[in-house]
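Database export, one record per block. Field names are fixed; values are copied verbatim from the stored entry.
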Amino acid sequence: MVAFRNWAGNQTGSPSEVRTPANTGDVADAVRDAAASGRRIKMVGTGHSFTGIALTDGIMLRPDRLRRIREVGPDRVTVEAGCPLSDFNAELERRGLALANMGDIMVQTVSGAVQTGTHGTGRDAGGLADQVLALELVLADGSVVTCSADRDPDLFDAARVGLGALGIVTAITFRVEPSFLLHADERPATLTALLHGLDTLTEGNEHFEFYWFPHTEGCQVKRNNRTPGPARPLGPLRDLFNGEFLQNTVFGAICATGAWIPATVKPFNRVSAAALGVNVYSDASYKVFTSSRRVRFLEQEYAIPREHLAEALHRIRETVDSSRWRIGFPVEVRVSPADDAWLSTAYGRRTAYIAAHTFHRTPNPEYFAALEEILTWYGGRPHWGKLHTRDAGYLRTVYPRFDDFRALRDRLDPGRLFTNDYLDRILGTAASGQ
């Protein structure tokens, strides 16, 4: 019986048992029960990973009752692992607090987002793992530990983007700050102009990203910068028209039509690119960082050194233009500063992210494979929750602390209680010293 299906519908799980723990003690009991019965154990989130990172054939934990805010201070908040980012941000706003940066959706659980290295875009502010101050984990022996930069720093640096391989995260302490407003400026541009001005754009804006419509020159550029206010949000009708009608209803209909009649994809892209408009508004930070995405898709994303972004995009455009593919989804481009979580895609280098998407009903493995070949040429690191074909042999060449992570995993989980097929591929099955 299928007990779990991810958002995109490409991953399903049939565990031997499903539990919904109410507290850390329940999680520890489940871990000990799994070990005693020779089964594996994983905690799922809301299913927004495209990989099988959360699947298990043993005990599956659902975090629905692990969502309390445990402690609030002026610069830190401790929240349980299963709290959705949407609820967490609403609670922070109520208390006059905010995260420094966010990804572009907020339906994930806080633990699922952190463990897979979820990020947004930022010149100075990194991804979610870079905003973590402490983690509470249940280890393979059922013990509960809390790690931070001062308390077991190696475990902290490894477990912030731990992939669920070192233990089950039950609570996270985030660094927060007083709530702030972002001024959003969204307007069209050409890809050629963007490729010539990337340095100016990335250095001149706190948060910069753009979407390129394949088969066209059309792009939509988003610049988000802090503002003292006042807030000038989009009106409710404009917000409904842009966010729900255009980005979901109309775009969903276009994707469905393209799946049925592939010849319409390129003309629709040209029309979409030509119809891009200007939106300028100011609102609470998390409302500007995130948006609603209801059109289901498959995604691949790679992180490359920031200095190679323009060249990589030029090669991707040439590859798409010379192919017979019909790519209906835009390519998303974001940036991030370097950070120090061992398996963060931004570890040790200023980073650019290139994300490719396809409609969930029309997967295009050849498209993903071609882009993967280009991006791995630059030492690209795949997003842990998005589709890729890399294995441990490749990944150890692009992560300086990869073998340190594997050695720590050998020590903490020698029996591989927390593994699954996906983790076996990306981390390997043998001990790190073999």
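Remark 1: The mean pLDDT is 94.
Remark 2: The chain has 14 helices and 20 strands.
End of record.
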